[in-house]
Amino acid sequence: MNEPSSPPETSPPWAAVLGAGPAGLMAAETLASAGHRVVVFDRMPSVARKFLMAGRGGLNLTHSEPLPGFLARYGEAATRLAPLIAAFPPEALMRWAEGLGQPVFTGSSGRVFPRAMKALPLLRAWLARLGALGAEIRLRHDWLGFAPDGALRFRTPEGEASLRPSATVLALGGASWPRLGADGSWVSALPGLPVAPLRPANMGFRAEWSEPFVARHAGTPLKRIALRFGEQAVRGEAVITRDGIEGGAVYALSAPLREAIAREGVAVPLLDLRPDLDAGEVARRLAMPRRGQSLSTFLRKALALPPVSIGLLQEALHAGAPPAELPRLVKALPLRLVAPQGLERAISSAGGLRLAALDEWLMLRERPGLFAAGEMLDWEAPTGGYLLQACFATGRQAGLGAARWLEGQARHG
Question: 3-state DSSP call for residue 302?
Fold first, then answer.
């Protein structure tokens, strides 16, 4: 979109949206649909970079899980997010995508995807709609914070600029994948406001593998496994990395694993290598005579275990687990995780602007006319469509709040 001239001070009330990700663009669409002038600013040379990255794996927009269970995925933030997501639930997000000419489908896991299985067609249609509504986008505008008089300060290719919108929506993202634009630097631009520390979420963890195990199995997937930590258990897949483990089953438990490491220095989830077999059947098969077979061959034939699973069992045996414990290890192999991977490799981030600092319209109580949305707020959720759903819903709510604010400004002159 073409860069507009700066709105004059005498123009009707207008809104700035800082951040051109899903939350920011949804706030902009909501404002423009209500007839307000809105300008979106982003520090990067193109919009929605993390959204496009997410689309490489199929763009999991939302999930078809019934709303009570859906909302529980947001943990401590569920109470605050519930009315926002209820006002724009998964069904509404699906209708919105289809209104952009992007039909969706629900997979066997309950996850919802565009039929195109890509983010770019949806983003193009969305930008076209925003353009038709009159929304404007300025790229390479890096927000530097507030001037003493309250104006927004930007670093631009032409030098520093200041603008005074009547309402501002902050949708600056969390701090994961910083090379895509959101690095959490906005924290320093909001001094005095309550911000929970930004931490990795939906990330892998470091484990201390042996060199032979790494040399043979780094990059190998673990399929059809189950992972348990405390009272939570998930089935799924994971991937062995050179320094640990990552993947969907790990991400689903990443929050409690991260907190356990913060408290105790280590987390030890239990890995079930054959969740389709009960413990009795595993023990029966392993009680059969080995007939001179190596342990690897015996495990492969008795339990149909792949080499990577056998390698994990051998790691435990080499670390001192008694061979008699092998049946138990197959069903509950301890994984000693010593640290979460950093924000640069995390899918999302936890922490951010505390929800208690915002009113029902996501306006900062201490800064009238300033709203916030998306991943920069203090909530987290597992992968599976829950992340994007909350970004869209909070972006819409902040847009509605900013529209109400502008209407009030217009009434009062």
Answer: helix
Q: What share of the chain is helix, strand, coil (3-state, %, to 5)?
A: 40, 25, 35
In 3D space, the residue among 273, 270, 268, 271 whose CA is nearest the CA of residue 285 turns out to be 273
Contact by Cβ (8 Å): 16, 32: no
Which amino acid is present at 377? L
Per the structure block, which two tokens stand in for 289?
């005579």
Do residues 392 and 80 touch, judged by C-beta distance below 8 A? no
Q: In tens digits, what is the pLDDT along the chain, a chain of 413 residues?
A: 333 344 444 468 999 999 999 999 999 999 999 999 999 999 999 999 999 998 887 899 999 999 999 999 999 999 999 999 999 999 999 999 999 999 999 999 999 999 999 999 999 999 999 999 999 999 999 999 999 999 999 999 999 999 999 999 999 999 999 999 999 999 999 999 999 999 999 999 999 999 999 999 999 999 999 999 999 999 999 999 999 999 999 999 999 999 999 999 999 999 999 999 999 999 999 999 999 999 999 999 999 999 999 999 999 999 999 999 999 999 999 999 999 999 999 999 999 999 999 999 999 999 999 999 999 999 999 999 999 999 999 999 999 999 999 999 878 76
Q: What is the DSSP string of 50-95?
A: HHHHHHTTT---EE-S-HHHHHHTTGGGHHHHHHHHHHS-HHHHHH
Question: In this structure, which amino acid lies at residue 10?
Answer: T
